[in-house]
Fold:
Amino acid sequence: MANELQSLSTLYQNRLFRIPDYQRGFAWKKDQLTDFWEDLINLHPERVHYTGLLSLKEIKDIDYSKFPNEYWLHQKGYKQFHIVDGQQRLTTFSILLYEIIKLVKNLEENIDLEDDKIFFCFDPLTNIKSKYILRMRPPENIVKTYLFGYENDNPSYDYLRHEIFEEPGSGTLVETYYTRNLKYAKTFFEKNLLDLYETDGIEGIELIYKKLTLQLKFNLHEIEDDYDVFVAFETMNNRGKKLTNLELLKNRLIYLTTLYPDEEFDKTNKDQLRKNINDAWKEVYYQLGRNPHAPLSDDEFLRAHWITYYQYTRKRGEDYIHFLLNKFSAKKVFEKHILLQDLEEEIQLSDFELDNEDENGIFPLEPEPITLSKLAPTEIADYVNDLKTLAKYWYTSFFPEQCDLSEEEKLWLGRLNRIGIGYFRPLVVAALATEKFTTPESRIELFKAIERFIFVTFRLAGWNASYHSSIYYNKSRELLEKTITIESITESLTETTNRDMAAAIKSFITRNNRRFDSGLGFYGWRDLRYLLFEYEYDLGIKSNIHKIDWRMFTQTERDKVTIEHILPQTPTDQYWQNLFGKYSPDELICLSNSLGNLLPLSQSINSSLQNDPFPEKKTPNKNSPRGYTNGSNSEIEVSKNDDWTANHIYDRGIKIMNFMARRWKLIMSNDDIEELLHISFIHKDY
Structure:
């Protein structure tokens, strides 16, 4: 069919729209929906708006035994089409149309009326619904056929029917990253339509409906049979909201399944491999979107899996997707190699012994050549299965507390996420995936070694974040391939950390000196919170009470603090003047920002309270209903002092430094500790 502009009203004549399995789900979010809504609101009533290209591919030779709900419409002249390009817009239109129908039906004057008695824009609601949303087979009206939707095995289809179009009897629905986008769009339009109705009445809703169905125009293009639909999809989706690499790869793999000749890979195998790909992507997207408040990145997962599956080299760097798309490319299917298959030598029965002359007349049988693609279908199958398997462990590495692990594994994975796991996540995921041939104890020892390496190498020394990344990327792959043991990786990390210890401590001292020179001291160390949280946790073990939640501790409101300077940075109160008056301004800055003076709070407080005298800080009063005495374990420890002097700052600093040395097995001299605390000018009274 030639390209032509068509409205939604025309498009929906005798067509069923289906989103094919190689398509991603609904990806539009707030920005795209807002732009669409504003375009619709601002569209002049007498003008049309070019909405973009809609590419469709007719689905022929349909086995209607698998789609019984659609056969009756096929008999009425309906044709099914795959949406190659334009599904985000058609999904959005369908959701908005349904919300318009629902709003009209729920108006007070319509609440008790049947749909065929409710008129909107001169049409009964039954006609509007049957034209754009679903048709029901008469006379029983039991069979329901949705005019727009996903292929039946897509989890978004059930969600669209039951959550978006509100068909009853859903049972358990699988939520994914994409289904949450559907739900958001439904809520978005529901709210905006109600707001529009409040301001413009039913006339405003009618105007939106007319614009949507008549004034938005698609440039319709039907792809012919001989057109490469997968390449078209890949090319078209470089426009607009760009495909993620994971979405792009899925399309590519499904495309490749269609290219193998039947003599190499028959239809049954092709169908099964395509199903395996779809199943793998369902699992991946389920795991990536499993936590609705913190969906995980598609591309980070795909890159991490590439690291664990293929040989990592720094030369490739961030080009992992180029490697994968080159690996899984059409040319690898079309390029063949010859496999010589040995044949058993034919045995000829004879009553006579062959003499040498006869022997010379027999020629050995030539091996039979078999032509195979350079990319074997089994390579795709193995890759897809591995991707599917690793997805669960990827989720576990981010949210261990929600998974079936030992408590100590959860503890150390939590620490790795708090400290910033960096390039070690693929190794951690690989370790989790070895649960059948490693023990929880061996994995815990690995997690401990990784955490110590990160703390010493990156948090103390501040070295380049890619230091030794190639080594441990490759070890993650080797661990999964069982060519090395988990214990050997732990040993390697420990040896490296110990070897680098002296240089790391020296670097930490140098960087800390610069922080004190700038007037920030330990307060300017970005990893101070992690240290103080671990110190607090250690105190909590002894008291058997944990009082600080990491998320609350690290997310402060404006003008609130979660780490308090016990001695204020600007000590103007007379109490502080009396105790610290003998120190110079520079010495006061050092004392205020020294490690022993910094206190993690169980609840954030107003920064205006920081100048209060120590006795008022530690005991609840009318100005401050909370005090150190009922705060965190660290606050309670500090509250046991009657006053807060320079000696108290020094003593507590020594105590935390000794904890740090013990906790991470640091090798520091007394001189190192003195230089780090930066308050050696204190002369103790005893």
About this structure: The mean pLDDT is 87.
